[in-house]
Every structure is written in C-alpha cells, then in structure tokens.
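Record 1 of the preview.
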Amino acid sequence: MKLTPEQIIELENETIQICQELIQIPSVNYGEGKGDEKKIAEYVAKKLSEVGIKSELIESAPNRVSVVASIEGQDQKRPGLVLHGHLDVVPANADDWSVDPFSGVIKDGFLWGRGAVDMKDMDAMIIATARMWSRLGYKPPRNILLVFFADEEAGSTYGSRWLVKNRCELFKGYSEAISEVGGFSINITGDKRIYLIEAAQKGIQWIRLTAKGTAGHGSFVNKDNAITRLSDAVSRIGNYDWPQLETKTSQKFFRKIAELTGDKYDGSNVKPLIKHLGSAAKMIGATISNTANPTMLNSGYKENVIPQSASAVVDGRFLPGYEDQLHNTIKKLAGEEIEVEIIVRDIALEVDFAGPLVEAMCNAINSEDPEGIPVPYLMSGGTDNKALHDLGIVGYGFSPLRLPADLDFFSLFHGVDERVPLESLRFGARVLYEFLENA
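->
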C-alpha cells in the first residue's frame, strides 16, 4: 500500500520519536550475564499493543527479555521473513561524551545517544513500519516475524541463541531474515555512492594460549620462564602478516569497486583498491584475510616471583571457508611448547547476493536514491543472523541509511558520541517500508 505524502511524514517522525525514546531507556549489556532488557522490551511491547499487535515477552534469565510478534501476510503459502533487531547496547562512559549518552538529544541535525546506530535506529524503523501497517489495516506480502533480541552485544546467550534452542517453534515457516549492519551508504573515489548490503560475516575463534615454566625467585637466571615463552608466542601471532584470501562476496565487492573507480582488479592483491573506500577502509581492510589480535595477558602474583604459568587470549576472526587456516596457523606460530585452547567459537556466514529478496533490497534503495549502487560486503563482526542460520534461515544485513559523505560511520559503532543523522533516519524509514512492501 503506497503511502500518501502525509503518511510518509508520519512514518518518518514516528521513527525518530521511537528511536529517541528507545535511547532514553538504558539497556546496557555489561557481559558475563549482566544485562537488563526488561524495561525496553516492555516499551516495545506497549508500542505494538497500542495499534493492536500482540507480542510475547520471553525472559530467558532474570531481566533478560526478548520480544516476539507475528504479522499475518497475504500469501500463507510463502515462507515468512524474520525482521529482527537487538535491544541491548554496550556501556557508555558519560565523562567521555559531549552529551548524556542516554538523553536521546537532537542537535546539529543528529539524534545522539548510545544505540543510535547499533541498533535502536533499525529497531525504531521496524516498530514504526509495523505500527503504520496496523493503522492502515495492511497485510505485507508474506508472514513477518518481528523479533527484538536480548544479549546480542555479549554473544546472544540469553537472546537469539536461547530462543533458537528453547523456542525454535517460533521460527517455523520462516526462511529468510533481515537485520543490522548493512544497507548504509559510503562515498568512494569519484564521489560515487555505494550501499553496503551485508551478505557475509567472519567467524570467531577466541583462543587461550598457555605457557608452562619453572617457578623461582625473580633475581635468579631462569631460561624456563613461562612469561618469556608466552611473550615470544604472542609477538609472533600479533605481528604475523596474514595472506589475502578471496571469498565470493569479497570478489563481487572488489570487482565492483574496481569497475566504479576505473582501477585494476587483482584477486590476489586487492589492497590497492582499499584506498578508494574512505572511512570504510579500516573495517573492509579487515575482511581480506583472517586476523588474530592478542587482547589479554594474565600471569604472576608478585613482583619478585617468576610464575609457573602464563596465559594470553587471542581474538581470531576467520573468513568463510578458512577456519582451519586460522587455527592451524595460530598453533604453528605459538609453537609446540604453548597449549592452544579454543574458548569461544562461532561460525562464519556467506549467502548468495541474488534472488528476489536481494532484488527487493536493491530496488528499495534505488527508489529513494536512483544514483545509489547496492553492493554486497563481508562484515568483520557478527550478528544474530548466525543463530538463525542454525535453523536454516538465510540472513542479510539491511538497515538502510543514506549518510553524509564526510561522516565516519564505522567509528560510531560502540564509539563515543554515537549518533545518527535525522535525514538518514527518515531515508531509512522510507526505504525499509518500500522494501517490506515487496519482500
């Protein structure tokens, strides 16, 4: 159902208002099970209930609450679409910010606050769209499952993974999913505007390295020092130059960048193309190879005691199809004397950038930005689509925003002074509505 100009303005304004109100409800996830989404989940349920949409609040642990609501579609024979977001945010140190991180203040054409881009903006677009449908009595083309997960920022143990394991019946009949970290624009060389649609994600191996040695007095000569042994291993891993690797998503991405900029494409060396990506270079640069960064060290209990053991944690990220390369390389670099243990693992994802759903995303972007160029990209992190993949649901990142060319958008994820342009929110609300009408 096409909206009138007045209804479009209503949709845009409601998206901004809901996003502002979501930011004003702190839903901080501190990790290790310490989080609280109850109040914000109740807010979401209330906004849906106001227009007659029934939802279920699902509590996986005290105050760890997700929201689920189903919207009946026109074609009951088609597999449904999961439209999901997460309600939790990472912590924010107010002393570092120029505004109260939970104020939801509007200034300088931006809406400011923790969660503005990760991902209460998309949550607001989803809620505003569902509310508009309900007011108009509109049914989307197929069944839509709205899910607002808890705990995405700390591994999804109490959110998507809990629901997939304990309430998998909720997702029966759904084959595709749309969520965060995609559909936003960046400007590349030549001032061409591309929209990054997430079609792949790196996998995770968090690895603990442990070295053993001989304990002793700090003043003695000790060639069997666990800290020395561990330090050598950590240095080798941290300084390793990982070889470039090609996936089907990265190949499509860099071929398109070469085409648009008139540069040369060489699948074995795409580094020269990264210079065209502006502020996106740092994130995209992390997706042309596996990576492994030492992040934690632990050893010793007194200044003059050589400890018997020492440990470190390495954050390893692997490209789709290259998990074994990551792990085997880390073991080799660590050396035979270092114990290597995987403490956290998650899959990599890669889906085809083709088919009716992808066409609907691309068409929706071009309906609002005819000069925009949708391109698939590989994300260095991960989303709740990984949990849904266990149920055979194919997921993409598509939370559309047309962004100012000079905005370093990637730095705002988990960053100080997180904020989203109001015009980008308005654009996103229109594009998401258009997409869902044809999805």
